[in-house]
Amino acid sequence: MDQVAGVKGDFPSVWGYLPDLSFFDEMVGFDGAVRPHWRDLTEAFLNIGPAGFIRRWKEGRRVIHENGITYNVYGDPRGVDRPWPLDPIPLVVAEEDWATIEQAVIQRATLLNVMLADFYGEQRLLREGHFPAELVFRHPGFLRPCSGVRVPRDIYLHNYSADLARSADGRWWVMADRTQAPTGVGYALENRLVSQRVLPDVFNANHVRRLADSFQAYREMLNSLVTPHRANPRIVLLTPGPYNEAYFEHAFLARYLGYTLVEGGDLTVRDSRVYLKTLGGLLPVDVIIRRQQDTFCDPLELREDSVLGVPGLLQAVRSGNVVVVNALGSGLLESSAPAAFLPEISRHLLGEDLRLPSVATWWCGDADHLDFILDNLSQLVIKPAFPTGRRHSIFGSKLSARARGRLAERIKAAPYEYVAHEQVALSTAPVWSNGRLSPRHLVLRIFAFADGDSYSVVPGGLTWVSSGLDSFIASMRAGGGSKDTWVKSNAPVSQTTLLPSATNRVAISRATFDLPSRVADNLFWLGRYVERVDALVRTARVILSRLQETEQINAGVELGVRTLRTLGYLSSPREEKGSKASSNGRGQNLEHQMLAMIYDSDQKYSVSWTLDQLYRVAWLLRDRFSADAWSILHRFSQQFTTRPTDDPLRLANTRTLLDDALMTLSAFSGLAAESMTRGDGWRFLEIGRRVERALQMIELLRHGLQADSADPSTDLQTLLEIADSSLTYRSRYLTTMQADLVVDLVLLDEVNPRAVAFQLARLQEHVEELPKRLTTSRHSSETKIVMRLLTAVQLVEASDLLQVNGSGTWKELNALLNDLGNGLRALSETLGRHYFDHTLASRQMTAF
Question: Which of 103, 378, 632, 777 is deepest in the core (most CB within 10 A)?
């Protein structure tokens, strides 16, 4: 192996890793030797070898892809589909380093919590001059309605995180404090799960401290906030919604911790108490873990234009009926300015120096600080004193003299709005890049949870890495990535899990009624989209198979095409003026249209477009699905992303794709049938599927069967194939093709799972089990609709429906199909009116 260039020592480099020794490197010392706490890991890498590591990391990328781990960078065209950029090489932290970090983070969280209690209480720090009043009263995060509001056990910071960086001399510095709704701990946990999949043997051999202990302590802390204490309080995680940059983390944490993921519309306040709106009624909420800015949480007393919050939430907090984690108003200290005053305040409040200093910081609102800043702009980083999305960090060293002059004028015009801090030469660590290791700068985010009168620190963290060695910005927005963080232990590591303790006994419950109406709505529409895709795929498969066999439009193709065109999925054929297009030419044109209908996501109601709608609805249900179910849905959404090239096998490849899609749909349906608890969630998913499948069969019969067909036998065979009922028909009637027999099988047969009658029978069962509403009638309006429709198909005979009238059509069949279609659409509207949350935009959906 090559040695590290430019340094002393006889230690071989790891896979050609060459750090820049003008920075502190986490893995390699200035003497070229691998640092002691990295040696176990590097020896394992040498044994695995680059080729072996490539194979392992392929598994890691597969896990990230199938689990749908994403992070939404605002303005990124990929939006919520941006894959999570995890680097497979973990950051290793020595035990002695961690001991220093742990104590420093505990001290800092304690200090900031005491400061928040003072700012919203007696405000002695302001009166005695320890902290500038401008940095409180001008701060948009200082919530005046929260002044004087007592919080349980005086805990304002239940969650806290600090961004740390190591400078060239090896010292750790605190770069930023996260006090409002710190993000990243869920991603840190997901990083750990992937890391353990990729390097299970290496992980265990390195005695890495586990994360589960901290999450168990966190759950116990949340339970302790409820008074009077209950063994099983209702705790919810409040998210801004699926377009938030960290929505994946919100859903992941809710599922991992066992809490309900809610949006503002899922909660309501009655008599100063917060309730979860469910199909079974209002359920009291004890604790809200908020993952949105506190100003958005209550439009009545905080930000009036917010549509994300819960009107009256602050009054419920003020009354002591609910605990919000972190406390409303804690965002006050989430800015760069307080760092300039923390050393003195720490000595004043805690009687001790900071264990880890903040990066040297100066507030421009202080006259002495301002003079120093203006004299040293070329060496400092300028930041806004208050959090804002409009201004970002400005590196003075990257500005021209003229630009620095303009910046100085802006600072002098409003000095209280700016702070400056020293530019830290961030340390580096190896990342896996193009088959080898390369150095990148890093920032380490550490997480702490309130624990009694102190804090416990998660033994690990989320390591951010820069996009290149020339960039000192380690963040996702700047194109960077993340790492798992391994804290080594010389003692045996804990094997704690999040399984409930045997001492915390809870009464047995089989309740399944805690389903928010928004979730019921999404499950209903997910069921509809699943069946919609199923119908499109089956129809497209039949058409393509016949096109591939004949390269021409025959009777079987005509039936499928006629159905798709009538419903708007295919455009009408373009005939040349003055002449009739050849059959072969029409076939080629149809082939292009069919491929566009399958792959073109910009074409409304195409298979790909419908899959996008399905995926968006499924994304809203991340916390409601198991990892297996989500993996299936995520894989399904990726199957139609690449359009086939113009080669002779394009139809064959597309048919294979459609076959695979049907298998994926079947896998999801089977998993839902076998794994979902038979509660209201499963019931609305099933209702959505049954409504949509019935509508599919109705439209297929309406547009597929014609009394005056030139080739009725082919039409009937094609219809049976699309309806997935060919095998059942042949087992009953062999090769005889009769319209009345086909109609009976796909319309009136209650034991054929594809028949309309089967869907109506299941709908009656499900609708009757829905939560009951106060009504004077024996049956709900939706039950009456289903009963009437089911009775209509039970009382009719297929032969009566196929009596041809004077105009050469099946009048009775068409009348029944129209009645059934209108009734099913009325059922959907009635369910939405009675059970679903209409604060959401209505979904655009047509019946197939």
Answer: 632
